[in-house]
Amino acid sequence: MYVAVKGGERAIAQSVDLVARARRGDPAVPELSVEQIRQQMRLAVARVMTEGSLYDEDLAALAIKQAAGDLVEAIFLLRAYRTTLKRLGDSVPLDTANMRLERRISSAFKDLPGGQVLGPTYDYTQRLLDFALMADAAVTEDPAAEASAGPIVAPRVTDLLAGEGLLETSARAEGDPDPSDLTREPLQLPADRATRLQNLARGDEGYLLALGYSTQRGYGTTHPFAAEIRFGAVALELFIDELGFAVKIGEVDLTECQLITDFEGSAEAAPQFTRGYGLAFGHSERKAMAMALVDRALRAGEFGEDTDLPANNEEFVLAHSDNVEASGFVQHLKLPHYVDFQTNLELLRRLRAQWDASNAGATGDEEPAA
Amino acid sequence: MTQAEAHDGYNFAYLDEHTKRMIRRALLKAVAIPGYQVPFGSREMPLPYGWGTGGIQVTAAVIGRADVLKVIDQGADDTTNAVNIRSFFRKVTGVATTERTREATLIQTRHRIPETPLSEGQIMVFQVPIPEPLRWLEPRETETRSMHALREYGVMHVKLYEDIVRHGRIATTYDYPVIVNGHYLMRPSPIPKFDNPKLHRSPALMLFGAGREKRVYAVPPDTDVRSLDFDDHPFAIERWDAPCALCGATDAYLDEIIIDDKGERMYVCSDTEYCNDRQQAGHHGTQGGAPRA
Amino acid sequence: MNTATELDLAHMLPGFADPVHDAQRGFRCVLDALSRPGRLFDMTVDVTPPPGLAPAQCAALLTLADCDTPVWLEPGLRDAAAGHYLRFHCGCPLAADFADAHFVVLAGLGALPQRSALKLGDPCYPDRSATVLVEVPELEHGGPIRLRGPGIADVQAISVGGWTARTTAFLHENRAAFPLGVDLLLSCGGRLMGLPRTTIVEV
């Protein structure tokens, strides 16, 4: 006699237990601390904060630990926590011109006020595996020993260019509404630029990288220059109604990228440089640059450029950028689909029987449709 | 029924009150405009998108301490997704849960409507992966919005008609499109077309939630829900030649189960509670007898 | 919109005693009312409304209104206790113009404005439309007004105080313009009845 299987709850509990053990690995090896992850995997932390839309290095590090290093899973964990947080207020717009720079480069000018600040980057390393890092007790120098000469603050390259009138301005227009918030309101199309930028900032780095890359290979018409990429700390200020002015409540590390592209002008608009903008939490240059490429690609319509390529298609780009959404929906195929499968199976059997009948003689007996 | 304590550290039903209010307002408009997809500010939930986040948010906005919740997936109370969602709500609300369709005031489901007839006062919450019935025919939301506004549903009829030309029948078997109250074209979520007739003038309120796609929609009780068809190809539901092997039911949707290496198979009710109930009432199939424990 | 005036906190009446669960019950009552047009439902949540708001209206607004939903009150109520109450408990802006209001609160059917003055939604987004809360002096099952449509098994008969030919014309127009339209919540003290835009009215 057939007895159907039951006991989903117990099986699930066991699976949860197994994943906890798999995450921990060999108990003889010391457990990673959240602080170690925060300090020593800072680029993973930056990505999780950026795509998780929450600036909290400790929680991002915790999420990475809990997700066993799966960054998309860590982003998901952070987002699900973020949803439950209360909104206390909106900061005033961040002033990245007053960033305390740790790194700042421009590929448009050889030298400029503030200079090229190389800072911490893999850009100039030779990608040779450093086997010294395999040694457990690798000697580390005290990072404080080589303290820098003091904080560097320098004007943004785009502000220097704008002074000449050759770059489109980004001043806030009269009556420009406050940006909407995609974590509170659904995406509605066509989207304004602020909404697009929020979507891209939360978007999957790999996805934006591929789309941005496509614009450089003929699936796009822009040829940008990296006017500036800067990374450093920016003051976070909150306007306090009772005081009547803004108060600094802390700092966030940001990476900002401004790509500029020339525009030949039209009957209405003078020739000038146009911008693509990228911004990410922490040190995230690849993300900020890919975002800036895609931002500019999504503005193609504004400048009368072709809009039929993948990276120019606003609805396509914005609807598929979110890795938490994408990961969930791709992986939901693991859920049971017995019912729908059954109904397709039944249909296919009938179609097959019909086909066999009309091709009589060509095939043998088929099981009749149930 | 089982009762649990609510989970500390989170609001009742997980969502904050501002979010619940926003979803509640969207649901009220959904009820007032049957079959129309209301955009809402879907939140990130602690379960993955595609795994019922829309249904969970609708349930969280609706559920109260007096409710008795049933959760099913594929008609069964014991599939992993159903178990997980039920235990989530036990944890964050402490409300009573049940497997009995008749006892439940609120039923969250994926892919089925229970066989036991629903009654007035009950609320069904459907998990929806893709809410837009025209999506496979037109991927652009900007276009499908205006197609609904103009009730330009010809493309759907053409698609079904092409099925008939090619296969001699309509090849859509689940998520079969319906017209609600003579107006909006709606996806009933991926229920088998077997369940479509249960939507028509049901005494229960039907709510649909798509989390990833950020839409809710509804069918009020006693509302006309017509499955699309043609005069010469009327809508018909799946039929099985054999009854359920466990309870002998001939009026239920059956799952096919492969029972040995030779590919021998049997058919059993997909609605586990219905099947158990019938067995307990003394109905038997060829393989049946003891209720599943 | 009215935002600047000081709120009189000393004389403020309390909102929901149990905000989470009272709002949930309030919502289910409104959900029932719109799902079952023409039926009377008791708003089971206790509130002490300020002058100018009926109990069921007050509970519905505490349940549904917030900073995202401007509420239209009669001009005389905006700077009075009712306006202060809603701004304090719901945080909602008070709309000076019908066209901005998500919720419109009226003291009788005679106060219904021209339908075109209200937020009716647009063809792609008919949900962006107002809900109109009207207090009436009498609200009963059975009577000369017959309702059909979604949520009604056959016919639902009602009688409503203050109903005139203009009310019928308003609702006919509201039904004919579907999916654009407003949804009505009639109240009589602590009782509530829904008349969504789908309901067909015959008198």
Q: Choose one word for the global shape of chain B.
A: globular
Percent helix range of chain C: 25-40%
- Span between N and C termini of chain C? 38 Å
Q: What is the average of the pLDDT values of chain B?
A: 92
Please compute the radius of gyration of chain C using only Cα atoms.
Answer: 16 Å
**Largest sheet geometry of chain B:** 7 strands, mixed
- Rg of chain B, Å, rounded: 20 Å
Q: Oligomeric form of this entry?
A: heterotrimer
The CATH class name of chain C reads: Alpha Beta
Layout of SSEs?
The complex is a heterotrimer of chains A (370), B (293) and C (203).
Chain A (H helix, E strand, L loop, with lengths): L7 H17 L9 H7 L1 H11 L4 H10 L4 H12 L17 E6 L51 H6 L30 H10 L2 H12 L8 E16 L4 E19 L8 E10 L3 H14 L15 H6 L3 H9 L6 H21 L12
Antiparallel strand pairs in A: 1-2, 2-3, 3-4
Helix pairs in contact in A: 2-4, 3-4, 3-5, 4-5, 7-9, 8-9
Chain B lengths: L16 H16 L5 E2 L13 H10 L5 E6 L6 H14 L2 E2 L8 E5 L12 E5 L13 H9 L4 H14 L10 E3 L3 E3 L9 H4 L5 E6 L4 E5 L5 E3 L26 E5 L6 E5 L2 H9 L13
Parallel strand pairs in B: 2-3, 2-4, 4-5, 5-8
Antiparallel strand pairs in B: 1-9, 6-7, 6-10, 8-9, 11-12
Chain C lengths: L18 H17 L5 E2 L12 H10 L6 E2 L2 H4 L2 H9 L4 E2 L7 E4 L13 E3 L2 E5 L1 E5 L3 E10 L7 E5 L4 H12 L6 E6 L2 E5 L4 E3 L1
Parallel strand pairs in C: 2-3, 2-4, 4-7, 7-10
Antiparallel strand pairs in C: 1-11, 5-6, 8-9, 8-12, 10-11
Helix pairs in contact in C: 1-2
